[in-house]
Amino acid sequence: MDFNVDFGEFLGSVKHRSQANARERDRTLSVNTAFTILRTLIPTEPPDRKLSKIETLRLASSYIQHLTYQLIAEPMDSPCAKLQSKQWTKKDKRSSLCTFCLTNIKKQKLKTANNDYQHETQPILEEPMDLIDQNYLMYSHQ
Protein backbone atom coordinates (compact mmCIF):
# COMPACT_ATOMS: atom_id res chain seq x y z
CA MET A 1 0.00 0.00 0.00
CA ASP A 2 1.34 3.37 -1.02
CA PHE A 3 0.20 5.96 1.55
CA ASN A 4 1.89 8.85 -0.26
CA VAL A 5 -0.32 8.49 -3.34
CA ASP A 6 -3.52 8.29 -1.29
CA PHE A 7 -2.49 11.32 0.80
CA GLY A 8 -1.60 13.26 -2.35
CA GLU A 9 -4.99 12.49 -3.88
CA PHE A 10 -6.64 13.57 -0.65
CA LEU A 11 -4.79 16.91 -0.67
CA GLY A 12 -5.74 17.40 -4.33
CA SER A 13 -9.42 16.79 -3.64
CA VAL A 14 -9.33 19.16 -0.64
CA LYS A 15 -7.74 21.83 -2.83
CA HIS A 16 -10.41 21.36 -5.54
CA ARG A 17 -13.21 21.47 -2.95
CA SER A 18 -11.73 24.63 -1.43
CA GLN A 19 -11.57 26.28 -4.87
CA ALA A 20 -15.16 25.22 -5.64
CA ASN A 21 -16.32 26.66 -2.31
CA ALA A 22 -14.55 29.96 -3.06
CA ARG A 23 -16.23 30.14 -6.50
CA GLU A 24 -19.62 29.47 -4.88
CA ARG A 25 -19.04 32.21 -2.29
CA ASP A 26 -18.15 34.65 -5.10
CA ARG A 27 -21.24 33.63 -7.07
CA THR A 28 -23.49 34.04 -4.01
CA LEU A 29 -21.97 37.44 -3.25
CA SER A 30 -22.55 38.50 -6.86
CA VAL A 31 -26.20 37.37 -6.81
CA ASN A 32 -26.85 39.06 -3.45
CA THR A 33 -25.25 42.29 -4.67
CA ALA A 34 -27.47 42.23 -7.77
CA PHE A 35 -30.59 41.75 -5.60
CA THR A 36 -29.53 44.61 -3.33
CA ILE A 37 -29.16 46.92 -6.33
CA LEU A 38 -32.50 45.76 -7.78
CA ARG A 39 -34.25 46.42 -4.44
CA THR A 40 -33.11 50.04 -4.54
CA LEU A 41 -34.75 50.52 -7.95
CA ILE A 42 -38.20 49.28 -6.94
CA PRO A 43 -40.46 51.74 -5.10
CA THR A 44 -41.91 50.14 -1.98
CA GLU A 45 -44.31 51.24 0.72
CA PRO A 46 -42.88 51.85 3.27
CA PRO A 47 -39.69 52.90 1.47
CA ASP A 48 -37.38 50.98 3.83
CA ARG A 49 -39.32 47.71 3.54
CA LYS A 50 -37.09 44.62 3.46
CA LEU A 51 -37.91 42.40 0.49
CA SER A 52 -37.12 38.72 0.08
CA LYS A 53 -35.55 37.60 -3.19
CA ILE A 54 -38.84 36.24 -4.53
CA GLU A 55 -40.69 39.43 -3.52
CA THR A 56 -37.99 41.46 -5.25
CA LEU A 57 -38.38 39.48 -8.48
CA ARG A 58 -42.18 39.66 -8.39
CA LEU A 59 -42.23 43.39 -7.64
CA ALA A 60 -39.59 44.06 -10.31
CA SER A 61 -41.71 42.24 -12.87
CA SER A 62 -44.83 44.12 -11.77
CA TYR A 63 -42.97 47.45 -11.82
CA ILE A 64 -41.69 46.82 -15.35
CA GLN A 65 -45.28 46.10 -16.43
CA HIS A 66 -46.46 49.27 -14.66
CA LEU A 67 -43.82 51.39 -16.40
CA THR A 68 -44.76 49.81 -19.74
CA TYR A 69 -48.40 50.76 -19.14
CA GLN A 70 -47.36 54.30 -18.27
CA LEU A 71 -45.48 54.59 -21.55
CA ILE A 72 -48.45 53.28 -23.53
CA ALA A 73 -51.25 55.11 -21.71
CA GLU A 74 -52.09 58.77 -21.76
CA PRO A 75 -51.23 60.66 -18.56
CA MET A 76 -53.57 59.52 -15.78
CA ASP A 77 -53.52 58.48 -12.16
CA SER A 78 -53.74 54.74 -12.80
CA PRO A 79 -52.89 53.67 -16.35
CA CYS A 80 -52.68 50.04 -15.30
CA ALA A 81 -56.36 49.92 -14.33
CA LYS A 82 -57.45 51.26 -17.71
CA LEU A 83 -55.19 49.03 -19.77
CA GLN A 84 -55.77 45.91 -17.68
CA SER A 85 -59.52 46.28 -17.98
CA LYS A 86 -59.10 46.05 -21.74
CA GLN A 87 -56.84 42.98 -21.55
CA TRP A 88 -58.44 40.82 -18.88
CA THR A 89 -61.93 39.43 -18.59
CA LYS A 90 -63.80 39.02 -15.29
CA LYS A 91 -62.90 35.31 -15.10
CA ASP A 92 -59.17 36.15 -15.00
CA LYS A 93 -59.71 37.68 -11.54
CA ARG A 94 -56.87 40.14 -12.07
CA SER A 95 -56.54 43.16 -9.80
CA SER A 96 -57.70 46.29 -11.57
CA LEU A 97 -55.14 48.44 -9.77
CA CYS A 98 -51.44 47.63 -9.53
CA THR A 99 -49.44 48.27 -6.38
CA PHE A 100 -47.59 51.19 -7.92
CA CYS A 101 -50.75 52.96 -9.14
CA LEU A 102 -52.31 52.45 -5.72
CA THR A 103 -49.24 53.95 -4.02
CA ASN A 104 -49.33 56.94 -6.38
CA ILE A 105 -53.03 57.49 -5.67
CA LYS A 106 -52.44 57.30 -1.90
CA LYS A 107 -49.58 59.82 -2.16
CA GLN A 108 -51.72 62.13 -4.29
CA LYS A 109 -54.61 61.97 -1.80
CA LEU A 110 -52.25 62.67 1.09
CA LYS A 111 -50.73 65.61 -0.78
CA THR A 112 -54.21 66.99 -1.56
CA ALA A 113 -55.29 66.55 2.06
CA ASN A 114 -52.15 68.36 3.27
CA ASN A 115 -52.74 71.19 0.79
CA ASP A 116 -56.38 71.50 1.90
CA TYR A 117 -55.29 71.60 5.55
CA GLN A 118 -52.64 74.24 4.88
CA HIS A 119 -55.16 76.31 2.90
CA GLU A 120 -57.69 76.14 5.75
CA THR A 121 -55.14 77.13 8.39
CA GLN A 122 -53.50 79.99 6.48
CA PRO A 123 -54.20 83.47 7.85
CA ILE A 124 -56.38 85.80 5.81
CA LEU A 125 -53.52 88.25 5.28
CA GLU A 126 -51.05 87.43 2.55
CA GLU A 127 -48.07 88.03 4.82
CA PRO A 128 -48.43 86.78 8.38
CA MET A 129 -48.35 89.57 10.95
CA ASP A 130 -49.02 89.44 14.62
CA LEU A 131 -51.81 91.47 16.22
CA ILE A 132 -49.50 94.15 17.57
CA ASP A 133 -48.17 94.93 14.08
CA GLN A 134 -51.71 95.02 12.69
CA ASN A 135 -52.87 97.41 15.43
CA TYR A 136 -49.84 99.63 14.96
CA LEU A 137 -50.53 99.94 11.23
CA MET A 138 -54.23 100.61 11.76
CA TYR A 139 -53.83 103.29 14.42
CA SER A 140 -50.54 104.94 13.47
CA HIS A 141 -52.13 107.00 10.68
CA GLN A 142 -54.85 108.56 12.88
TrEMBL record:
CDD domains: bHLH_TS_scleraxis_like (cd11465). Gene3D superfamilies: Helix-loop-helix DNA-binding domain. Its main location: nucleus. GO terms for molecular function: DNA-binding transcription factor activity, RNA polymerase II-specific; protein dimerization activity; RNA polymerase II transcription regulatory region sequence-specific DNA binding. Residues 15-67 form the BHLH domain. Pfam families: HLH. Keywords: DNA-binding, Nucleus, Transcription, Transcription regulation. PANTHER family: BASIC HELIX-LOOP-HELIX TRANSCRIPTION FACTOR, TWIST, BHLH DOMAIN-CONTAINING PROTEIN. This is BHLH domain-containing protein. It comes from Cimex lectularius (Bed bug).
